[in-house]
Amino acid sequence: MRAGSYRVGGQKKTMDMTQDKRKEVEFFNQSAEEDEYNVFTEAASRKLIENFSRLSGLSSGRKVADLGCGSGVFTGLLQQMGYKAIGLDISAKQLTIARSKYPSISFLEGDVEDLPFPSEDLDGVLLSGVVHHLPDPARCAAEVFRVLKAGGFFLAFDPNRRNPFMWLYRDRGSPFYSKTGVTENERPVLAEEVRRIFASAGLRSRTDYLSGLSYRYVASPITRLVLPAYNLLDQVLFRASLMKPYSPFVLTLGEKP
């Protein structure tokens, strides 16, 4: 069993470095029943996919997999951008919603650490908030390398541990950490750690940051009260280049040589 550590109240805690798949499935199946895990506004979701298109440079018609697709919102937007989009998720109930909303798209049940695609099959991969659910993303990174064609592009977006709001609400080391609406596996990421893992898998990897993704919903009722204020602050605080490393989201991106 692989183990890692994190700190709570100055004390060092240990954690298993393998993902508990059962708990992930249970969490997202429950979210599907309540239809509540589409957390971003429509404009924010579109902004993210527009960034994927701009950064990737992939032309329409290219085959792109949305890993961790959930109910298919990003997959549907990828299709609207002209890509041959495929969605994959670990939750069968999330996929039932996705198939009902986007019947022209193929959605597969599967695990990002054991992808059901042939080697060198994809032109692009979007990791939809997946990496921060993996205590050790190395297997996922290796699978992304395997399924991408030479020159293929990947982008992962995840909450940034250096963002003060993400740290306060979502990091286990914070005194204000809330378990509401999160799985036991997830925690915000450090940009350099994720970049190193994908580079170690053989991918040319770099980091960017993204702010201005407004939330329409969070699970915690208390946090929901301050959501309008958060959305406003997010729009203005991280525009300056000096503040970009503290943006709410880390983008890890690059190409297969």
Question: Please, could you describe this protein's structure?
Answer:
With 257 residues, the chain is of the alpha/beta class. The protein has a single domain, classed as Vaccinia Virus protein VP39 (Rossmann fold, 3-Layer(aba) Sandwich). The chain is built from 9 helices and 9 strands. The protein is globular. The two termini are 32 Å apart. Mean pLDDT is 90; it is low at 1-16.
Write the layout of secondary structure elements.
Layout lengths: L2 E6 L2 E6 L4 H14 L7 H15 L6 E5 L5 H8 L3 E6 L2 H10 L4 E4 L12 E7 L9 H10 E12 L4 H7 L20 H10 L3 E7 L10 H5 L1 H11 L11 E7 L2
Parallel strand pairs: 3-4, 3-6, 4-5, 6-7
Antiparallel strand pairs: 1-2, 7-9, 8-9
Helix pairs in contact: 1-4, 2-3
Can you summarize this structure?
The protein is α/β, with parallel strands linked by helices and 257 residues long. The chain has helices at residues 21-34, 42-56, 73-80, 92-101, 138-147, 164-170, 191-200, 221-225, 227-237; strands at 3-8, 11-16, 63-67, 84-89, 106-109, 122-128, 148-159, 204-210, 249-255. The strands form 2 sheets. The chain has a 7-stranded mixed sheet with strand order 5-4-3-6-7-9-8, with helices on both faces. A two-stranded antiparallel ribbon has the order 1-2.
